[in-house]
Inverse folding.
């Protein structure tokens, strides 16, 4: 008796999710995004049994992406294509798909400005960090969140997941149990950041059973990554700063961009951002205007006859 499609999909997805988490080392959120995209591909292809994967053709793969392109911007479609390419490579390793099928997934072109990191100037960053009212509990919380993002280059999800026991006050360190690359990390707790967190814990954080450092006000529930980003978005609006993509990640880009402009190497930036590959930080070379200007060649003068 043939297994129904959903049972086959479940078996494929379970094996793939285990591979992403244990072999590739992706975080839970990234694993969920990959599995979600692959599930949709299996349903719309459709793949009713493993033999169908072997029968997949490059035309079917590109046809699926063509359909998805009608509902996705180019940068979102690039993420979809990346998820599909990685899954087909895994399927090939398992003997489920043709050996070269993953090569049929095209590279999705994006306009250049989508790839360049948007960042704040030093004056804008100072204005933003000074905009939170430290006389209120919510203002103390938001300023501590802003400093975690702007000084330690944390991601919104990492700030939201920060627990009280993750802060080692005597050692002056902060522990990230699981970052985007799937590995724990230990960061120095800068005095400015530590003082802001301590100020919030002593004078702002309401009593509650939750272990997360940052909670909502007035109902003390753990904050989500979206709530962390909204803290930055509100501050940007308050300061009258307009950027294409406002949110918590803007401050992470700002940290990296300022470091490069101050002469830090891309290796140092990649280490600070906890990137697994140096190439992930190479985009910040585009914001180093003084060094880029030195590389520019003079415009050739018209030859004199």
């Amino acid at each position: 008796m043939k297994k129904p499609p959903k049972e086959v999909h479940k078996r494929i997805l379970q094996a793939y999710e285990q591979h992403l988490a244990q072999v590739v080392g992706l975080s839970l959120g990234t694993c969920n995004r990959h599995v979600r995209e692959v599930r949709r591909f299996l349903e719309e292809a459709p793949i009713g049994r493993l033999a169908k994967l072997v029968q997949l053709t490059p035309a079917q793969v590109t046809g699926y992406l063509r359909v998805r392109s009608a509902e996705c911007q180019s940068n979102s479609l690039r993420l979809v294509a990346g998820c599909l390419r990685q899954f087909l490579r895994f399927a090939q390793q398992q003997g489920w798909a043709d050996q070269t099928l993953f090569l049929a997934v095209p590279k999705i072109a994006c306009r250049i400005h989508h790839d360049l990191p948007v960042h704040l100037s030093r004056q804008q960053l100072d204005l933003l960090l000074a905009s939170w009212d430290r006389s209120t509990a919510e203002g103390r919380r938001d300023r501590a969140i802003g400093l975690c993002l702007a000084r330690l280059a944390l991601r919104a999800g990492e700030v939201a997941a920060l627990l009280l026991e993750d802060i080692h006050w005597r050692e002056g360190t902060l522990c990230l149990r699981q970052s985007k690359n799937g590995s724990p990390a230990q960061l120095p707790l800068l005095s400015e950041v530590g003082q802001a967190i301590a100020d919030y814990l002593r004078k702002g954080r309401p009593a509650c059973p939750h272990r997360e450092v940052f909670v909502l006000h007035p109902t003390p529930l753990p904050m989500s990554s979206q709530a962390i980003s909204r803290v930055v978005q509100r501050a940007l609006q308050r300061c009258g700063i307009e950027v294409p993509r406002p949110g918590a990640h803007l401050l992470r880009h700002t940290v990296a961009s300022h470091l490069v402009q101050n002469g830090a190497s891309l290796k140092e930036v990649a280490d600070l951002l906890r990137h697994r590959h140096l190439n992930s930080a190479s985009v910040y070379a585009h914001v180093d205007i003084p060094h880029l200007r030195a590389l520019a060649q003079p415009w050739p003068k018209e030859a004199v006859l």
In short: The first helix runs from residue 5 to 24. The chain has two domains: 5-114, 122-291. The domain at 122-291 is CATH 1.10.443.10 (hpI Integrase; Chain A). The mean pLDDT is 83.
